[in-house]
Amino acid sequence: xxxxxxxxxxPQTFWNFCNRLKNNGxxxxxxxxxxxxxxxxxxxxxxxxxxxxxxxEDYDGVYRAVAFFAFKYGKIDWVESNNExxxxxxxxxxxxxxxxxxxxxxxxSKFKSKAQMKGCYEKAGIPTARQHKVSDLAAAREFIAKxxxxxxxxxxxxxxxxxxxxxxxxxxxRWFYGExxxxxxxxxxxxxxxxxxxxxxxxxxxxxxxxxxxxWPPSIMDIVNKKLDLAYYVAADMPEQLRSMGRAAVEAFGxxxxxxxxxxxxxTQARPGLGDIGDFVALEVNMRPAxxxxxxxxxxxxxxDVYQIWADMITWNExxxxxxxxxxxxxxxxxxxxxxxxxxxxxxxxxYGDRIVTCERMPELMWDQMGNMNYTAVLPDxxxxxxxxxxxxxxxxxxxxxx
Length: 403
Fold this sequence. Notes:
Layout: E1 2-6, H1 15-23, E2 27-32, H2 41-45, E3 49-52, H3 59-73, E4 78-80, H4 87-96, H5 109-112, H6 114-123, E5 131-133, H7 137-147, E6 151-155, E7 165-167, H8 170-178, E8 185-189, E9 193-202, E10 208-216, H9 220-226, E11 231-234, H10 240-253, E12 258-267, E13 280-286, H11 294-302, H12 306-316, E14 329-335, H13 345-352, E15 356-361, H14 367-370, E16 373-379, H15 382-393
Parallel strand pairs: 1-2, 1-4, 2-3
Antiparallel strand pairs: 5-8, 6-7, 6-8, 9-10, 9-12, 10-11, 11-14, 12-13, 14-16, 15-16
């Protein structure tokens, strides 16, 4: 089996996907924009061969790299990055090289377009926020007359929470239309709730081989725009309502042979037509693993190896990793250099040292969303996870996002 992995060196944990594939006997062929000498040794050891390009934005260059691999090793069986940013590149390469094991160019829009996602959620019978394609100010006011303020505006096709805004009054609305971006945008009614996700590894028949829930008390939009500290956790289990909705969404979107990250609101305020407190409402779907170190956090929470489960799905279309008996919570607490905190680095290690599994500086590209410093720990339950986050992120008086 010849597997072309796009950007195996970034994010920095993605070498694990390649490593497990190679251990399964797969020919793993990497294409990336880091010179070979700049690759970490674990990346080099996880690849059969690596093709360096100055940029992956040049499709002709990437096409030539895949063509070289096809000439040298034979037909390409898989093309994948597991990265939101390269989903369209992956799909285009699959189409051009007749690789049928993943999404093709003609089908990728339903996974990227926030407007098209709505149709799939409706097909699955999953409630979702009302949405309006941004056009002119009059149409926006007509939409807001139905939903009320606040509303969320975000790119119709976008990655993460960049360029996403919460409009709370007419002044904000006029500002947005005064600076209206060229890219297509959508406007959605504001949902009061915590963001959770249904994360799963899906086989070729659309059935889950692994399922997990992650919870983000603050939204990524607020973290980026307000410079909040990121805190989130992988839960030991998930409510049956979320499990059922996640599986229904997988079927509606026609997901096959993928690691997926589907986001939902868990309502903290009842919303007519959507649900009561505690109910789940669809937000958006991402056809790739959750970002940052979340796959590793799933490993810690569930005492398993999601990279191996994914690789076994690719190689044999089955799960060979046994179901563990023990599950716990794994919590991430980020800190920013610009704030002062009540508890020092040494105090955190003294109190939680036996629980902390990751403690390191984050890559610069992740600072906006994840902070400068990462403290990740395993905890026995949700209360302990929240107490841990509060301890790590407690601000000194006069510091923090509120000043």
